[in-house]
Specification:
heterodimer, A: about 110 residues, mainly beta, 9 strands, about 0% helix, globular, B: about 120 residues, seven-stranded mixed beta sheet, four-stranded antiparallel beta sheet, about 55% strand
């Protein structure tokens, strides 16, 4: 299975909004509403921020939102804060009953 | 509150077998799948595979020939074995709880280094 495609890096200033894309195929992202997004700070375990394309777990800020169109899913972070600076990974369920991760995106808050 | 505690050998020689175990504390063990994910130094996350309480497994096709995930329901534990390791298997290995195709609880990670 091939990794989902994410931009290597994105950046934004505090208060701005950014969007991270995650592109797959009809066998993963496009075929199922099982895309999730993870935030990972250096030296820490990942934390789920969005699941099932657009659902937020309890305790996750409503500044984080997710969507999907065709084979591409997106994570949007509004009102950027310094604490949002981290690596972000998408995952999707696949037609082989597996999970596949994206390559990861480094978010820099300027 | 569910917590995952993981352990295992941190230094291996090429061709040896990696062995890690993850214990689940709190919450139901039988209602979920339990998975393993790894992250090579400076690189992204890679899903390795998962298992449920009855032993049903799913594996990453790229690792399937070398991976075995097993479960011990009497101890609420699950384990990972990866055979014939090479330097490319050097990574932080995480265990995690899988709920409906996402990973909602993670262990702290175990660093495994393969070096002669």
């Amino acid at each position: 299975q091939s990794a989902l495609t994410q931009p290597a890096s994105v950046s934004g200033s505090p208060g701005q909004s950014i969007t991270i894309s995650c592109t797959g195929t009809s066998s993963d992202v496009g075929g199922y509403n099982y895309v999730s997004w993870y935030q990972q700070h250096p030296g820490k375990a990942p934390k789920v921020m969005i699941y099932d394309v657009s659902n937020r777990p309890s305790g996750v800020s409503n500044r984080f939102s997710g969507s999907k169109s065709g084979n591409t899913a997106s994570l949007t972070i509004s009102g950027l804060q310094a604490e949002d600076e981290a690596d972000y990974y998408c995952t999707s369920y696949t037609s082989s009953s597996t999970l596949v991760f994206g390559g990861g995106t480094k978010l820099t808050v300027l | 509150q569910v917590q995952l505690q993981q352990w295992g050998a941190g230094l291996l020689k090429p061709s040896e077998t990696l062995s890690l175990t993850c214990a689940v504390y709190g919450g139901s063990f039988s209602d979920y799948y339990w998975g393993w994910i790894r992250q090579p130094p400076g690189k992204g996350l890679e899903w390795i595979g998962e298992i449920n309480h009855s032993g049903s497994t799913n594996y990453n096709p790229s690792l399937k020939s070398r991976v075995t995930i097993s479960v011990d329901t009497s101890k609420n534990q699950f384990s990972l074995k990866l055979s014939s390791v090479t330097a490319a298997d050097t990574a932080v290995y995480y265990c995690a709880r899988a709920i409906l195709y996402h990973l909602d609880v993670w262990g702290k990670g175990t660093t495994v280094t393969v070096s002669s």
